[in-house]
Design a protein that fits this description.
Elements (H helix, E strand, L loop, with lengths): L18 H21 L22 E5 L5 E3 L2 E3 L2 H22 L8 E5 L5 H14 L4 E3 L12
Parallel strand pairs: 1-4, 4-5
Antiparallel strand pairs: 1-2, 2-3
Helix pairs in contact: 2-3
């Protein structure tokens, strides 16, 4: 009884029987999977232990607002001048660093978030930026509202 596609009795099949080939490949795969972990050898080494410094919660950001009259606000508190703003910034920054040192955590500086009125002069906002840079703040960003009809992307 011949299994072929031509219905001719006694004709040779020209198709390759792949079942034995697949069986051999699976056996070889299993042999390699078993022997590879045995072949891999490593030299015993003592790996150093690292003291990870835990990070506390991120310090609160510094909220600054500049209105059209060139008045600068730290939160809701009005600053008299950029010098007063710088002094308060230095005091706050030193207090945050000391607090983080006392807790034994990684020192992470707070960020300054500036909300400037759309009609405020650049010199007013620039003065606030310069005062905070002189106080030692490295990350200063602006808070704005998206234009109507635009979808914020992230």
């Amino acid at each position: 009884m011949s299994v072929g596609g031509d219905n001719e009795e006694g004709a040779l099949m020209s198709e390759i029987n792949t079942t034995p080939l697949v069986d051999v490949m699976l056996v070889l795969l299993i042999i390699f999977l078993i022997t590879v972990p045995v072949v891999i050898q490593t030299v015993p080494v003592e790996i150093p232990k690292v003291n990870n410094i835990p990070t506390a919660t991120k310090p609160e950001n510094v909220p600054l607002s500049v209105d059209t009259n060139c008045d600068i606000f730290w939160g809701l508190q009005k600053m008299g001048s950029t010098d007063e703003l710088r002094e308060k910034g230095v005091t706050y920054l030193l207090a945050e660093v000391e607090k983080q040192k006392a807790a034994g955590t990684k020192i992470e500086l707070p960020e300054v978030h500036i909300r400037g009125d759309a009609n405020a002069e650049y010199r007013c906002i620039g003065g606030a930026i310069f005062a905070m840079q002189r106080a030692g703040y490295q990350k200063i960003g602006f808070i704005s509202n998206p234009l109507p009809g635009t979808v914020p992307t992230r």
